[in-house]
Design brief:
With about 450 residues, this protein is an alpha/beta fold. It contains 15 helices and 13 strands. An 8-stranded parallel barrel has the order 1-2-3-4-9-10-11-13, surrounded by 7 helices. A two-stranded antiparallel ribbon has the order 5-6. α4 packs across α6, α8 packs across α13 and α13 packs across α14. It is globular and about 70 Å long.
């Protein structure tokens, strides 16, 4: 049995996945604007030997539900939301091994500047940074950034292909490994013959310039991706190293995993080039009864209204227009195609609003795993075996209680069974996860831009 990877999944905001939990009296996420909140979060995650903290992000507001942003503003559903990159330096400073995945949107961030920002973080974390590549799906974000409308779904991925080519050229090809000589005697910091400008002239981007940062430990950060549409899967199979999925059961995950691994293999990267991580929520207790009592306590604070507002924006359909037993239309939108397909085309029959809300046990559209440490370990092991996944993105419920419960109760059982590491490996984040020297392998498309 392979050892699983586990990331703490969060966002620089009050309400992330399980909406309404910030109202619980033991929840501390109202302190998300304090740096101490994030450094303690990082210390806890590293104490549990978690592989990393993954910070999601969004650059718009969810304004589809009821045609207004009011529902999410009132419930704190990913608004207000602060920059996810800012706390990472401090979290890295108080830890030694913990990895960090951070979401940045290619549609709105100039590639030349992002290249420097990620190289800086790779330096400051000593090679522990990863980037979740997203293209966005909110019209509100497009309007906020000065666009007339959100670019079409596949066009966003086409532009992202060019975007990554620019970054690969900068990260992998602009500086030689030995360019920075640091010769104090001669007063020469870098050998100019080993530093070069790179250029790109394409349909969506044009640039020419020298990468502003010297080579960092990983050069290219560990690459995460979460696109589940057909176009998103092609993109992930070509570029990603870790892929996030969100399905209700391991059996539902397996077809997606098989497709992703098959596409990666067909592209010459190999089926094992992808680490597939599933989104989960866990409510753990020392006994089954304790966990169930905890769930009932948490449920009193869940916000279905916030979850419906979040989901409406995700799929691009105002769910307030439906009666409880009306099936959701099988339409095409420019939003998150995989989220819409999960309740329409991929479902045995189109789901109704009642069926969707029945799943929102903790203000999320995915039901939590609830139980004793042994029960939870059994379920996670089943996901690995039946879904052929590699690990999990662990969403928070009540912070920091839910993460501490998982680390103190569930992790020791996983370690006893050999399902989770007893300690960290050495080296950069990519090396910890995949071996090698911490750099992208020669089978990755970025390798063609190396000198």
């Amino acid at each position: 049995m392979k050892q699983m990877q586990i990331y703490a999944f969060d966002m620089n905001c009050v309400g992330h996945i399980n909406h309404g939990m910030w109202t619980h009296p033991r929840d501390t996420s109202l302190h998300y604007t304090d740096l101490d909140y994030w450094t303690e979060f990082a210390r806890t995650a590293e104490r549990g030997k978690l592989d990393g903290i993954f910070l999601a992000d969004i650059v718009g507001v969810y304004d589809v539900y009821r045609g207004s942003p009011a529902p999410v503003i009132e419930t704190g559903a990913q608004i207000p939301v602060n920059d996810p990159l800012m706390p990472i330096s401090a979290m890295a400073y108080v830890t030694k091994h913990l990895g960090f995945g951070v979401t940045v949107n290619t549609t709105y961030e100039p590639p030349f500047l992002l290249a420097r920002r990620m190289s800086t973080l790779d330096h400051l974390t000593k090679g522990r940074i990863g980037w979740n590549v997203v293209t966005g799906y909110l019209d509100s974000a497009a309007r906020s950034m000065g666009f007339d409308a959100l670019p079409e779904h596949d066009a966003r991925y086409d532009a992202a292909e060019e975007y990554l080519e620019i970054l690969y050229k900068l990260w992998e090809g602009s500086w030689d490994d030995d360019a920075a000589v640091r010769d104090k005697t001669r007063g020469i910091f870098a050998d100019a013959s080993k530093v070069r400008a790179v250029s790109h002239l394409g349909k969506y981007y044009r640039m020419e310039g020298i990468h502003l940062a010297e080579p960092s430990p990983q050069r290219t950060p560990l690459l995460f991706q979460a696109g589940a549409s057909a176009r998103g899967q092609d993109f992930a199979a070509r570029h990603a190293e870790c892929v996030f999925i969100a399905t209700p059961t391991p059996q539902a995950a397996r077809p997606t995993v098989d497709v992703l691994r098959g596409k990666a293999s067909a592209m010459g990267r190999g089926a094992d080039a992808l680490c597939v991580l599933s989104l989960i929520t866990v409510v753990a207790g020392r006994t089954q009864k304790e966990a169930e009592d905890k769930l009932e306590d948490y449920r009193r604070h869940a916000s279905v209204e916030a979850s419906l507002a979040h989901y409406s924006a995700s799929i691009g359909i105002d769910l307030s227009r439906y009666g409880l037993d009306d099936p959701i239309d099988r339409v095409s939108t420019n939003a998150n195609q995989s989220a819409l397909s999960a309740i329409t085309r991929q479902a045995p029959k189109p789901m109704t609003l009642r069926e969707i809300t029945d799943q929102m046990v903790l203000g999320s559209r995915m039901k939590p795993i609830v139980g004793s440490p042994e029960h939870i370990a059994d379920r996670l092991q089943g996901w690995i075996e039946d879904g052929d996944i590699d690990g999990f993105n662990l969403a928070r419920t009540v912070a920091p209680e839910s993460l501490a419960d998982f680390i103190d109760l569930v992790v020791p059982v996983l370690q006893e069974r050999g399902l989770f590491k007893a300690d960290y490996a050495e080296g950069p984040l990519r090396q910890k996860l995949f071996g090698g020297n911490g750099r992208l392998p020669s089978s990755h498309p970025a390798a063609q831009f190396r000198r």
